[in-house]
Amino acid sequence: MNMKKLLLIPLLLLTVLSMAACGGGDDEPFRPGQPETPEQPGEKEDGEPETPDVSSLNVNITVGDRTVTATMEDNAAARDFLSRLPLEITLNDYNNMTEKIFYPDPALTTEGVTRGCAPTPGDITIYAPWGNVAIFCKSWSHSNALIKIGRIDGNGIEVLSIAGDIPVKIERR
C-alpha cells in the first residue's frame, strides 16, 4: 500500500503541472497577424501614450470684428466639440451675465469624462444635466454637473462680457 502512494504522488504532480501548462490564461485565441498584446486606446504601437498636437486643441472665437483664442481640453467631450467646427451660433445670456450658453444638437458626448469644476472667467464647460455649453464670464461655485472642455486664452473673455445675445463663429485655428 505504501508503494502505491509513492507512485501515485509523482503521477498526480505530473498531471497537475501538465494541465497548468496547457491553460491559456486569456480567453482570446492567438490569431496570426495580430499583435499578442492589443494596443490600448490612447497608446501608440510602441506602448507610448498618444498626446495630441497642442495646436489641434486651439480655436478662434469671432465676435463681430474681434477674434479671441481658446485652448480646448484633451477629453472626449472637447474632441466631440472640435469635430463639429466651424460653428456659427448665438450665445445667450444666462444667470445675469454669469455665463453665455448654447445648446449643441445633438448634445456633446459626456460619457467617461471627468466631472466637476469651479469655473472662473473664460472657462468653457458643459452643464451635463441640460447638455448646454456654457462659457463663464464670471466666477461661479464648484459644481459636479460641469465638465470643463476648454478655456478662453488671456483676457479674451472681455469680448463676451456684454449684455444680451451674441452671434459668434467658432473655428479651428
Automatic annotation (TrEMBL):
The keyword Ion transport does not apply. Residues 25-56 are annotated as: Disordered. The keyword Signal applies. Residues 1-20 form the signal peptide. Keywords: Signal. It holds the Pfam family Cyclophil_like2. Residues 61-171 form the Cyclophilin-like domain. It comes from the Bacteria. This is Flavodoxin.
